[in-house]
C-alpha cells in the first residue's frame, strides 16, 4: 500500500487554482496600500484648496489695505477712530446679551423636550430653522410695524430699540444655539442625571444650573461663538433700527475710505479669531462632565 506523493498533490492543487490565483493576498495588500495612498493625496488636495480659498481673499484685502500712504496709515486711522471702539463695544455687549437670553430660552426648552416630549423635537427644530427662511429685512419690518405704535411703542426710545435689536438677534441665533445644545444633550444621559438629582432632593432649576449646564459647557461655547459672530457682522437689522453697531460702521467707512474699510475688515477678523481661540482653550479645559451619584 503506497502513500500519495505530496509534491504531486501540491502540483495538482496549484494547477486547479490556475495561474491567476498565485500571489492574490500580496496583490490585495498592495491594492489597499495604494488606495490609502490615493485617499491621503485626495484629502491633502482638498485641504490645500480650502486653505487657498480661505487665505487668498485675506491676502488680497491685506495687500489693498497696505497701499494707503503713508504705510499703515489705514490701520492707525481705524484704531484711532472713536467710533471703531464704541461700535465694536456696542455689538459685543449686544452679542453677550443675546447669548444670555438665548441660553435661558433654548436650554430649558431643549432639555424638557428631550426628557419629556421627544415627539415635539421635529416641531421645535422646524421653528428654530425659520430664521433661515425669513429674511432679516422682513423680521425688522415686522418688528418696526408691531412695536412702533401703542401700547408697546418701543421704537420711540433708544432703550426700546436696543430691546428690539437684542430680541431680533435672539431669533437669528436659534438655529445655531438650539443645535449646539441639542447635540450636547444627545451626548449625555439626561434621564439618569435627572433621576439621580431628584433622588438627592434637587429641584428643576438646580438640576439645570448645577448638573445640565456644566455638561453642556463646550456645546454652549460653540453656540455662543456662532451667535457672537452673527451679531458682530449683522447689518440689516442694526441699520433699519438705527443702532450704532459695528456692521453699519463698517459699511459707512467703505463708502468714504476704502483703504480703511479693508483694514477694518482685517482687524475685526483678527478679533473674531482671538475670540475663537479663547473659546477653544476654555472648551479644552472644560471637558470633564458632572456625574451625580447616590451613596
Notable traits:
single chain, 295 residues, mainly alpha, MetI-like fold, 13 helices
Describe the structure.
The chain has a single domain, classed as Orthogonal Bundle (MetI-like fold), CATH 1.10.3720. Helix content is 78%, strand content 0%. The protein contains 13 helices and no strands. It starts with 5 loop residues before the first helix and ends in an 11-residue tail after the last helix.
Mean pLDDT: 82
Into which percent range does the helicity of residues fall? over 70%
How big is the Rg? 30 Å
Domain unit count: 1
What is the SS-derived class?
Answer: mainly alpha
The poorly predicted ranges are 6-22
- Largest sheet properties: none
CATH class: Mainly Alpha
The helix tally amounts to 13
Number of strands: 0
Which word captures the global form?
Answer: flat
Q: How far is the first residue's CA from the last residue's CA?
A: 78 Å
CATH-assigned fold name: MetI-like fold
CATH architecture: Orthogonal Bundle
Quick one: CATH superfamily?
MetI-like
The amount of beta strand, in percent, is: under 5%
Order of helices and strands: HHHHHHHHHHHHH
